Every structure is written in C-alpha cells, then in structure tokens.
Amino acid sequence: MARAKIALIGAGMIGGTLAHVAAREALGDVILFDIAEGMPQGKALDIAEATAVIGTDVSLKGANAYEDIAGADVCIVTAGVPRKPGMSRDDLIGINLKVMKAVGEGIKAHAPNAFVICITNPLDAMVWALQKFSGLPKEKVVGMAGVLDSARFAYFLAEKTGVSIQDIHAWTLGGHGDDMVPMVRHSTVGGLSLPDAVSAGMLSQGELDAIVERTRKGGGEIVALLKTGSAFYAPAESAIAMARSYLLDQKRVLPCAVWLSGEYGLSDLYVGVPALIGANGVEKVIEFSTNDDEKAMFKKSVESVQGLIQACKDIDASLA
Ligand code: A3D
C-alpha cells in the first residue's frame, strides 16, 4: 500500500515540529508548504537527512506551490501570522482570514479528499472559515485545540497528584480561549472523578481550582516564557494524535473543534467537543451530560466563538 501523504500548510515552528514527529513515526511522506522561500525546503532536507539516523522510510519535500500538496491524505494548517503587540483581535482575524482563503482554495483544488486539521488562531473561527473557503465536507475539517488544552489539564493533574499521566483522562470543552471549560466532573485521576479525587485527598479543592485556572491560561503561560512565539511541541503532538486516529482508523475520542448540527443544542458553528475520529473523519460527537454550572460556562465560551465568527462575516461578506 502506498504511504500516506501528509501536507503541512505553514512550515513555521509548529509545521517544522509536525514534520519531525511525522517522519520519526513514519506516519507518511511529508510536504512542508509555506510562502517563505527556502525555509520549508531547508527544514524538509534537514529532517530527511535525520531519517538516515532514525531509520524511517519516508520522504520529505519543501514546497511553495499548491500543486505539491496534490492528493494529500491529511493537511495540517498552521499558516498565518501570530498576534503582535498593538494588533487588535480584528486585525489578526482580518489577516489570517485572507490566509485561510488562500489555503482553503489550495486544498479544494489539489487535495479535496484530505482530512484537514486547522491549528491557526483564532482557532474556532479560522477552522469555520477554512471549511467554508475549501468547501470540503464538514466531517473532514476539524480544529486542533481541545487535545492540547486537555493535555495541559492532564499534565498539571499528574504533576500535582503524582499519578502517572497514563492514568489521567482530562477533558476540556468549548472554544480555545480563556473561557474554555475544563470538565472537572468528567476528568479522572486513576479512575476517580476529580471531585472524588479531592474527597480522597489526592489534591485539595484549592489546588484543583488553581489547575483549572492554569489550564485556561496555558497558552499565555508559554508565550510569557518564550517571549518570541507560542507553544509548538505540544500543539504539534496534539495534531499528530488527530492525524494518526484518522489515518489508522483508530476511532479515538479526542476533544476537537468540530462542526455541530444539533449536538449540545448548537448548530452551524465549530466548537470544541469530544469527537470520534476514524477513517471517515469525524464519525460521532460524544455528548457529555452537563449540569447548570457547566452549561453556563459552555454557553459563555460558545458566545465568544460566535463573536469571532461574526467578526469574520463582518470582514468578508462572502462568509455571511
Ligand atoms: P509561525 O512559526 O509563525 O509559523 C506560521 C507560518 O505560516 C510561517 O512560516 C509563515 O511564513 C507561514 N504563512 C504565513 N502566511 C502563509 C500563507 N498564506 N500560506 C502559507 N504559509 C503562510 O507560527 P507557529 O507555527 O508557532 O503557529 C502557527 C499558528 O498556530 C498560529 O496562528 C498560532 O497562533 C497557532 N497556534 C494555535 C494553537 C492552538 O491550540 C489552537 C496553539 C499554538 C499555536
């Protein structure tokens, strides 16, 4: 069987890390696409040379033309610009919306059968726009945020309780912003829900509250430390987990930004919920039971996402 083809649209910090991880895992042949000339070719050659040491039989190629992504099985999109000091939220949306238009049209023309994972921020709005611009089926276009946010939540819980990260299952719902909803009742440490873990003395209520807050602000914590960019290792690993579930038909349930049509009482938008990812893309949305508090937090987060989508519609009338 031919190797899978993975197109990475955007070859910056996350794109380069994605290429490295995909090559190490021999997940497929990699195309690193970027508008910057030379950089994707340089990264591709560097990692290709590393495969001689790793011993994986995959090819890597840098590209500046969409023709090179032809027939890709998976496209992972990180193309765009980061928010710079003095740039408003709407300025960022305006710039990255234009990038999503170019990327969406490129994917539509050259890789219409791909499973597309968007990472570009503001995530929930950009994945929504990317689906519209590409015209690909909604179950084949998803956003990566929940896997990362949940990974942060899980890591902080492991660090605090001393329980192996393998025995922690953490979930976040909602948009990728400070009002995301870490699902305390549905997350488990060694099989105990977090309220039960508090009762069992594994961590205090105050420590749990601080972890929830730290999870919500996890992206900003890394930005403040790095000073010149945002997280890239954990975001890349998160997108690879989603790509792997699709390519290997693992049917993992992963929190992703997916198109909702009635689930959680919502329609016509992308927002983070647990989704079963298999060979057909998003095969099922898992609906968690929510209490009044969780409903209220989820509603607030959804309203933020709706605000971002409205801003996109205001900027580009073709999306309205
Ligand atoms: P960066 O290293 O700047 O890479 C972005 C790349 O996009 C650069 O190499 C650009 O040259 C390239 N680019 C710009 N415009 C285009 C275009 N039109 N076509 C193709 N390539 C283009 O950023 P990064 O890799 O650190 O982050 C990428 C994106 O992911 C940013 O929008 C981040 O905000 C976002 N991000 C999201 C999360 C989530 O959890 C959702 C986490 C971390 C980063």
TrEMBL record:
<dbReference type="InterPro" id="IPR011275">
    <property type="entry name" value="Malate_DH_type3"/>
</dbReference>
<comment type="function">
    <text>Catalyzes the reversible oxidation of malate to oxaloacetate.</text>
</comment>
<dbReference type="InterPro" id="IPR015955">
    <property type="entry name" value="Lactate_DH/Glyco_Ohase_4_C"/>
</dbReference>
<dbReference type="GO" id="GO:0006089">
    <property type="term" value="P:lactate metabolic process"/>
</dbReference>
<feature type="binding site">
    <location>
        <position position="34"/>
    </location>
    <ligand>
        <name>NAD(+)</name>
    </ligand>
</feature>
<dbReference type="GO" id="GO:0004459">
    <property type="term" value="F:L-lactate dehydrogenase (NAD+) activity"/>
</dbReference>
<feature type="binding site">
    <location>
        <position position="152"/>
    </location>
    <ligand>
        <name>substrate</name>
    </ligand>
</feature>
<protein>
    <recommendedName>
        <fullName>Malate dehydrogenase</fullName>
        <ecNumber>1.1.1.37</ecNumber>
    </recommendedName>
</protein>
<feature type="binding site">
    <location>
        <position position="83"/>
    </location>
    <ligand>
        <name>substrate</name>
    </ligand>
</feature>
<dbReference type="GO" id="GO:0030060">
    <property type="term" value="F:L-malate dehydrogenase (NAD+) activity"/>
</dbReference>
<keyword id="KW-0816">Tricarboxylic acid cycle</keyword>
<feature type="domain" description="Lactate/malate dehydrogenase N-terminal">
    <location>
        <begin position="5"/>
        <end position="143"/>
    </location>
</feature>
<comment type="similarity">
    <text>Belongs to the LDH/MDH superfamily. MDH type 3 family.</text>
</comment>
<feature type="binding site">
    <location>
        <begin position="10"/>
        <end position="15"/>
    </location>
    <ligand>
        <name>NAD(+)</name>
    </ligand>
</feature>
<dbReference type="InterPro" id="IPR001236">
    <property type="entry name" value="Lactate/malate_DH_N"/>
</dbReference>
<feature type="binding site">
    <location>
        <position position="89"/>
    </location>
    <ligand>
        <name>substrate</name>
    </ligand>
</feature>
<feature type="active site" description="Proton acceptor">
    <location>
        <position position="176"/>
    </location>
</feature>
<dbReference type="Pfam" id="PF02866">
    <property type="entry name" value="Ldh_1_C"/>
</dbReference>
<feature type="domain" description="Lactate/malate dehydrogenase C-terminal">
    <location>
        <begin position="148"/>
        <end position="306"/>
    </location>
</feature>
<keyword id="KW-0520">NAD</keyword>
<keyword id="KW-0560">Oxidoreductase</keyword>
<dbReference type="InterPro" id="IPR001557">
    <property type="entry name" value="L-lactate/malate_DH"/>
</dbReference>
<dbReference type="GO" id="GO:0006099">
    <property type="term" value="P:tricarboxylic acid cycle"/>
</dbReference>
<dbReference type="InterPro" id="IPR036291">
    <property type="entry name" value="NAD(P)-bd_dom_sf"/>
</dbReference>
<feature type="binding site">
    <location>
        <position position="121"/>
    </location>
    <ligand>
        <name>substrate</name>
    </ligand>
</feature>
<dbReference type="Pfam" id="PF00056">
    <property type="entry name" value="Ldh_1_N"/>
</dbReference>
<feature type="binding site">
    <location>
        <begin position="119"/>
        <end position="121"/>
    </location>
    <ligand>
        <name>NAD(+)</name>
    </ligand>
</feature>
<dbReference type="InterPro" id="IPR022383">
    <property type="entry name" value="Lactate/malate_DH_C"/>
</dbReference>
<feature type="binding site">
    <location>
        <position position="96"/>
    </location>
    <ligand>
        <name>NAD(+)</name>
    </ligand>
</feature>
